[in-house]
Structure formats: C-alpha cells, structure tokens
Amino acid sequence: MTTESKQHGGHLVSPDGNWYWDGIEQEWKPASAPPVARPTAASRRETNWEPAKPKPAASTSLSSFVGSVRSDDLVFGQTVLVWARWILIGTGLVLSFWTPSDLLTLQVQLAAIIALAFGNFYLHVQLLRGHPALDNVVYAASIGDLCVVTALVIVQGGYPSPVFVFYFAAVVGISVAFPTLLTAAYALVVIGGYGIICLSTGGDGPAVFTRLLMIAAIAVCGNLFARNESHRRQDAIRIHEELQDEAAESEPSAQLSQPASPA
Amino acid sequence: MQNMREVRTAAQANLEDVFFGQTVILWARWSVIVAGIVLVLWTSTTISHLTQTVPFFLALMAMNFFLHGRYVMGSPPNRTAVMAASFVDLVLITAIVALWPGSHQQGLNNQFFVLYFPVVFAFALVFTRRIEAAYTVIAMAAYVAACAFTGTLPFDLGGDDKTLVMRLVVIAAMGFLGNYYFRIQRDRLARASRGASSGVEDLVANLRPAPARRPVRS
C-alpha cells in the first residue's frame, strides 16, 4: 500500500530515493548514498525485471513508534478520516440539541463530541501545515471515533439507538486509509462490539445481521478500491519509467543518424 | 522527459475508472443480495410471503452474475449499463423499505435502510462528482419518499424526523467521502502517470524554508 521504502536507519525515503525525511529537524535531506543505477528497458526485458514492489504498509505503519516513518497511503487517507470525523462531529452536535432526552445523555454526548472536535482540529491543522500526524496517532484517533459512537449507542439504550449509523462513516475512513489487516481488525472490533451490544439489549436478529453485514461490506468495498488504485499507480509508474528509458535509448541513436551540420 | 504529460484524455480516464472501479459496485451488490436473501429466508412466516419476495433477489442475483461474469472475462459492461444496474439497486432497496410485509416494518420503521450505504458508497468510488451527487440525492429522495409513502414520517420535528435526518446525513456522507477519496486517488494516478509517484514532492516544497530576505541598507 505504500510507495516509500525504509532506508537510512528507518527514515522515510522519497520514491526517487534522492531524499529522506529527518524527523528530528523536520525537513527533507538529500540521501547520502549514491543513487542506484536504474535498469534500462533493454535490461528489463533481458532479465525479466519487475519493479520493486512496495513493502506491505503494515511494516512501515506499525513500526512508527519512533515517530519518523509515515505511510504514504495513510497520509492521503487521513484527509478522508478527518472529514468523516467532522461529519460525525457536526451532525452529532446538531442532533444533540434536537429534542434531547435527558440531562445525562446530553452531557455525555456533548463531552464526547467536543473532545473529538479538539482532537480532529489538531489532526486537521497538522494536515494543513503539511505535517500529517504519526501513524499511531491516526490509529488511536480512529479507535477514539469508535469509542465515542459506542458510548453514545450504549447511553441511548443499545440496539434502539439510531446513532449506530455513524459507525458507517467511521468505517469508510478506516477502510480507505488503513492497510487491509488493520481494516479487517477494526471492522471485526466494530462488528463484534456492536453485535454484542445489540444482542444484549434485545436486538431484532435480522436487523442486527443486516447492520453488521453492511458494516463489513463498507470495509471490504473501501479497502478493495484502495488496493486496486495502488496497483493502478504501480502500473502507471512502471509504464512511465519504461517510456523514459526507451526515449533515453533512442535519443543517442537519433543524434547519430542526423546529418552532420555544415561547418 | 521530466515534463512528460499524461496522455489520457478526461474521457479515457472516466472509462478507465469505470472499468477498474466497477468491481467495488459488484461486491457491494453481492452484499445487498446476501443480506436480502438471508432476511427473506429468516423473516418469512408464510409460503406466499417467501414466494413473493425471493424472486426480486433472484433477479438481482442473475443480473450481478452476468455483470460479474463479464467483468471476470475481461469485457465489463459499459458506463451506461453500470449506472442502470446501480439505479436498479436503488429501486430494489426502496421497495424493500416501502413494501416490506408488516405495517410496523415499513418506511421509517424498516431497519433495512442500511442497504443504501454500501451501494451509494461503491457508486461514489467509481463515477465523477456530478453523477455521484445526482445518485446520492436520488437515493436520499427515494428514502424520504418511501417513508412519506408509508405514512411513517410525522413532519413534526420530533424524534422520528431527527432519526430520518441522521440517516440522510450518513447516506450523504457515504457519497461525499467515497467521491472525495475517488478524486484523491485519481489525482495520485495522474501524478504517477506523469512520473511523480506520490505527493512527497509537494510535501518537500511545503517544508522547504522560504528564502531569507536580505536586509535593506539605508
């Protein structure tokens, strides 16, 4: 899912290999290692060369405790997550003031939503400044989303609560931003947790089944699309590089074949 | 060579997006079919109920078999066919919401409105913004119409209206978020086709310190 590779002691390296991210000084620095000779189109054909496949996102994403590695896909998917969370916050705020049932529920709702809003504001500002948050912060924020929705569902009585629909918005962001394994893990947590809540609060079997199946369907569709797009990008990069190599190979021969210019 | 441009036209890009993206719609439809068949088998209390409802899902299943088969064979249906099939999805889901047996399980009381979510989301991942917006609005209007048709919408700004608004907001969010991500991915693909494999170059440009101003000597 990512297009970067880890080099220089675990630093993020740009796709062309010429820059690496210095997390301490917060700037991109030129890579000191000599550039690797790129294979030409002819050598690719001879050796049946294939472009280096990106490492699994989990390897970069989960190893980011040190705070210098970010996965490219998570950076782009983060914007979807942030907007999904703003939708949750905005809708939640408006609906909280619309025929509130009792004081305790309203207090819990407002406290959770305002806490979420502060966290999302921080993440959004980081994105706007060009400093996407660390992977683990994003993962934790998504857990926070799910916890807030779950708290609201429980406060409103479990199965009868209409707030469960916000699970869908949260899972959409997760499915397009996170690697497949993490998406599956988050979806399973949601399905398991919400399923237990529904069944323990007298949920109607078919309705609960439909809700859980649709949450799973959203997770599958989003992640499937993200993976498809990743493959398309890899193909586009490979084709571009082959075209560049072929053009570079044809340029010298074209110059040689040109007639000599008069003195 | 560094200034190599993407050679795809906008029309070609749209066709490619439909080609590669329709697998998401197919899988979303499979989820709706599975949910529908399980629900029908689970909740049927009479033979007539079962025989009246199952054919709709069998028809949808046959359609999706055909579409998925063509996709697997490498000749997926064109854009119009994909859109038509997606509208059939909306019609079927709206029929489930409005016509489900039992007056207490129709309209706003029907819990199967969640079938709208994956369908709208998958559609938003494939089509451009205007088409997606139209589809999302049609889905929302169809749901409101189904609720109004069954007389389960009180229009008194009470709890039921609040529930309806909440559901409509999430349907709209499915469309918006799906298409937002679709546009991000399309931009990334265009950059990759030009030789820039990610947005890291922009990040570098953003992080590069601005040139220091020289002090003006008086």
Rough outline of chain A: elongated
Principal-axes shape call of chain B: flat
Biggest sheet of chain A, in brief? 2 strands, antiparallel
Question: What's the Cα radius of gyration of chain A?
Answer: 24 Å
Describe the structure.
- The complex is a heterodimer of chains A (263) and B (218).
- By secondary structure, chain A is mainly α.
- Chain A folds into 2 domains: 30 residues, no CATH class; 157 residues, no CATH class.
- Helix content of chain A is 65%, strand content 5%.
- In chain A, strands 1-2 form a two-stranded antiparallel sheet.
- In chain A, a hairpin with a 3-residue loop joins strand 1 and strand 2.
- In chain A, helix 3 runs antiparallel to helix 4, helix 5 packs antiparallel against helix 6 and helix 7 packs antiparallel against helix 8.
- Chain A is elongated, with a radius of gyration of 24 Å.
- The N terminus and C terminus of chain A are likely disordered.
- Chain B is an all-alpha fold and 218 residues long.
- Chain B has one domain.
- Chain B is flat.
- The model of chain B has no long low-confidence stretch (mean pLDDT 80).
- At the A-B interface, helix 3, helix 6 and helix 8 of A face helix 1, helix 4, helix 6 and helix 7 of B.
